[in-house]
Amino acid sequence: MLSVIRRCSTSAASKPAVYSHRSGAKTKAKKSTSFSLKTPRGTRDFCPAEVIHREATISAIKSIFTNHGGEPIDTPVFELTDVLLGKYGGEASKLIYDLGAEDGGEKYSLRYDVTVPFARFLGANRISKMKRFQIGKVYRREQPVVQRGRFCEFYQCDFDIAGDYPKMVADAECLKIVDEVVKKLNLGPFTTRVNHRSLLGGVLIHCGVPQEATMSVCSSIDKLDKESWNFVAEELQTKKNIPSHVISQLEKFVRFQGDSKDTLQMLEGEIKSPQVGESIADLNLLFSYCNAFQIAPSFDLSLARGLDYYTGMIFETVLTEDDLKTGSIAAGGRYDNLVESLTSRTKKPFSVPCVGLSIGIERIFALLQKRQENPKTITTEVFVASPQKNLLKERMAVCGKLWNAGISAQFEYKNNSKILDQLQFCEANAVKYVVIVGAQEAAEGVVKLKNMATREETVVKEEDIVEETRKRIC
Amino acid sequence: MLSVIRRCSTSAASKPAVYSHRSGAKTKAKKSTSFSLKTPRGTRDFCPAEVIHREATISAIKSIFTNHGGEPIDTPVFELTDVLLGKYGGEASKLIYDLGAEDGGEKYSLRYDVTVPFARFLGANRISKMKRFQIGKVYRREQPVVQRGRFCEFYQCDFDIAGDYPKMVADAECLKIVDEVVKKLNLGPFTTRVNHRSLLGGVLIHCGVPQEATMSVCSSIDKLDKESWNFVAEELQTKKNIPSHVISQLEKFVRFQGDSKDTLQMLEGEIKSPQVGESIADLNLLFSYCNAFQIAPSFDLSLARGLDYYTGMIFETVLTEDDLKTGSIAAGGRYDNLVESLTSRTKKPFSVPCVGLSIGIERIFALLQKRQENPKTITTEVFVASPQKNLLKERMAVCGKLWNAGISAQFEYKNNSKILDQLQFCEANAVKYVVIVGAQEAAEGVVKLKNMATREETVVKEEDIVEETRKRIC
């Protein structure tokens, strides 16, 4: 495993030293060591350049969320275990981290996503209408695959619309938001595939899939973006015990070649069920709204999405020119029953339909980080230096004044440091100005202000240093 | 317990509806309910106004941290239990949340602070020099006292300086940073008390306190800011078994009346030990640097601070005019051995001296929130409305263009909504402009742009709407 420790060392070593390593050696934690300073399996430290890079990406996404009227909330990192259980489906539930039992008998688990906590928030506060976003860490006890960006602690970045609105309007806005995010971040060409849980369910019934096998068959079909039909058919037959005539029926629909309109027309012609008819009408309405927003998702009957809680429109966005095989960079859908299912066991049942999207922000971080220069991590504008020793307090006094004026500054900590070393720090960190406090100048109540780019030096009265510096920086 | 649920409901109800509650009733979770939607004991949800308020405060503090050359890092929310154990002292260790055991035998615990994770980060990466800040949630299994702001999940906001520097320079910079933070946030008059662990240790030895009782006696003495001398003396005698002649000796030093200079002079005169002499010299140097920074902390021999890892200067900042009895709003100190103690058990021992500060950000949030207006949580600048029905797609098209131009906009979701209801939303959320899409106007390819403050309406060609809106907003 490419350990965190190494990642941080490597990233710092490949750029001008942001902070100093006493040894350049890669300190990969060894298994044989009895005690290790590694982070827990599947978790990482983030170095300054990574944190700053991530914050910039998050900030760009946030501005789109707020442009759509989104409001931020924050929920605890752990929840009552009871709140999380049974919301995600069998496979996912095994990935939940539990905390040690509490004295009072309450059981807690780390959150698996921010969707169920949002539904709990809506239910607990009986909120009937809200556009909310939440960007925070979630936890899954998966086998980490660092190369593929799969970690046990990672960020989720969600926008959801709760409220009882006319059909498909909020759904279309979610797709529009994803479109804006991908374009704003310049992630390159992408496509959004859309399906409807109810339509997929109707097709499965029509093909003769038993009700209890629905989710299981969906999860096989969902693999069609990565696996061949033969692989999926084999899995349906051997692992899921689906009869071969049912599989043939499924194949006809799932592998139908045609654009969104053709496929929906074919389904409407072939399957005469109210469930199918209604969900096709929903999708046609959705596409007409997408048209108004000038976005063009495509229909894909094989899209299923893993989580149990989806009830209506579901979608997934992938980059189409992506050497890194990033996979989906956004996904989401409608979950009209989640709040109700949480509140139905309380004394105050409450229901609110919801639709939302999740930006695959970890994958986006990875993509952008490969593409971009490491950001500057130290933003010091002024360095206070001395060519002679014993001027430490004089430097501190000047630096203190700059800080009081809100100017980003540092001073040399050593009482006796070579001026060249001090200027080298300025070069390495792109510091723009150096205030030089000299013995003679100090006696005269002046300092030198040096422009690092032009090398120009100006003699400035000590009491004017803040004003003169500010003038130059602004 | 004032539950989270109620807090959110209350804060939303007391201001123009940011999001709609179906019922205004306070939905306090009842103990008798078999299933509850509450958050875990001692944790809270944060509503939009709270999140925005917190982010503004954090942003103000961050700008001071970066002005001092600080770089951000991020570490996992849980750590290997081994990393945390034995770092905080007996009482604190009991407050650590453990996660359920992992298959691989690794044991994890939620982080108790961000200092030990920083020390682990330094040790793992062998970083010999760094100014880092970290703002994140930490976890303590305390008995929550909501009224006093004591929670089990709360933010810590730390700035630390790692590096082998001349004595007391970085220590003074930490005190300067705290001074800037308190002033920038307008928290009112404050005082910073400073002590030296080594000086306190030397005084205890001089008084005859047995070595093994040092930490325990310190924790009693630390209560002198809240409790009387009699209370502390009683505790020392009955609970800590300190002989009364030792307590009398302690009293002489701890209760000495005088300013910082007098007290240090008295100690220097009374106690002839190299340990005491050296730490007094350290403190005098620290005060001379503080003088250069134009800040004036005071010496207080009774300040002890709870955590085991401190080795040198320690400090605590309290507000002096504070009706809310907030307690300390910043604290910190020097911990020169923490990194070494972590790495000494690995195959690559490494040492780096550190000094740092922690801003009591939760207390500051609480103080500022009481004082300030709730911030605007929806920042929509333009609302796209219709006076007639069946213009939904036309509204969507206009809104889509505004979003594409990065303008914050929303549209009415309903196909048939009263124009008054739409304008009421704008009033409630201080929306500045309304684009009115009318049937006749739509036929003519124009819309109306209404200024909500002046009520002025302008007819604008649909293709010019983005430009005309942007002109007005900027």
UniProtKB/TrEMBL annotation, chains A, B:
Domain Aminoacyl-transfer RNA synthetases class-II family profile: 59-387
InterPro entries membership: aa-tRNA-synth_II (IPR006195), aa-tRNA-synth_II/BPL/LPL (IPR045864), Anticodon-bd (IPR004154), Anticodon-bd_dom_sf (IPR036621), His-tRNA-ligase (IPR015807), HisRS-like_core (IPR041715), HisRS/HisZ (IPR004516), HisRS_anticodon (IPR033656)
EC number(s) on file: 6.1.1.21
BP-aspect Gene Ontology terms: histidyl-tRNA aminoacylation; mitochondrial translation
Gene Ontology CC entries for this record: cytosol; mitochondrion
Residue positions binding L-histidine: D113, V114, T115, R140, Q156, D160, R305, Y309, Y310
Keywords in alphabetical order: Aminoacyl-tRNA synthetase, ATP-binding, Ligase, Nucleotide-binding, Protein biosynthesis
Single GO MF annotation: RNA binding
Catalyzed chemical reaction(s): tRNA(His) + L-histidine + ATP = L-histidyl-tRNA(His) + AMP + diphosphate + H(+)
Family statement drawn from the similarity comment of this UniProt entry: Belongs to the class-II aminoacyl-tRNA synthetase family.
Protein name: histidine--tRNA ligase
